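Sat 14:20. Reprocessing the chain from the morning session after the first attempt stalled halfway. Input below, unchanged.
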Amino acid sequence: MGRARRARKIAAKAAYGGGVTAAGAAASAAAAYGILRAEAQIARRVVGTPFDDTPDDSGTYGHGFGDPVHLLVIGDSSARGMGVDTKWQTVGSIVSVAVAALTGRPVQLTNVSVVGAESTDLDGQIDLALEQVPEPDVALIMVGANDITHRLSRSTSVRHLAMAVHRLREVGAEVVVGTCPDLGTVRPLPQPLRAVARRYSRDLAAAQTVAVVEEGGRTVSLGDLIGPDFDERPTVMFSKDQFHPSPAGYARAASALLPSVLDALGHATPDAGHVPDRRRGESVGPVSETAVRAVRDPGSEVSGTDVHGSQVGHRGRWAVLRRRRRQPMPDAGEAQAEQVDEAPSDHEQPGEDSDRSA
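Finished this time. Tokens:
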């Protein structure tokens, strides 16, 4: 079964809260998780020193005029910034500094993410966030890795993410989701654990994309964004525990997420709104097919679109994939000086690029 079809099935099962799974598929999943359990014991002995704490990056960034941009950060340890040395190195902080610099408005960052969180924890985080910021402008969600390592059902994972996006959209927030990273890039994980983790995380990322776009959000594929650099510079891109990104790794993720956050705020990036360029690998198609392309092309954004005035075709919601140009990050020293408050249409034919690999 191709990844696009699996993504559709996972998202559909999530939408309807269950479904009948074929016996063969269930047996295969059980076997795979058996491997994960056994090999995870080995992985725990290999992965390096854990971290005691994460910095609190909530606060106001920038000196701009006008009302502040209210940015929520929700999710797991990647959203929290586990592995960084200072609050200036988290994804939320980097994005906030950049948005403040590029829009000329201050950014009020509220980070309610929790280390170890799964998608099932998003509802509680949103409760806390909306108590502090009833009408956020944009929410950035990063979640999924713990759903894989904690063996959470993918349909359950996707259902809770979809509900989170729905809640945030109901209060008027734009939503950008950094999809599940490719855990196959974590080198301390032995085979066959690494291969199984890669397949499960990529399948989850594709299904997350389908669900998020159908709820009116947009996704950015994080995938193996820092994988190629890890091969060349492992001590630079990963932190000392060899699992979480280093400050350089988080900066790479932030540079991929920033254009989507800016566009969500109506502050268009240079390539926003252009006709998808096939020469750059951009495309319009059914969201499940577009999601698969995004999984294979880290840094790609997927969002809903219309084709000839219709949002839905015979193979589901139409979506557009864009290959974002990474925005330059403001210098960290300049960012620190800027701190105000340190307190807390043509389209592709459906099925043209279906992924038939594992």
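The longest helix spans residues 23-46.
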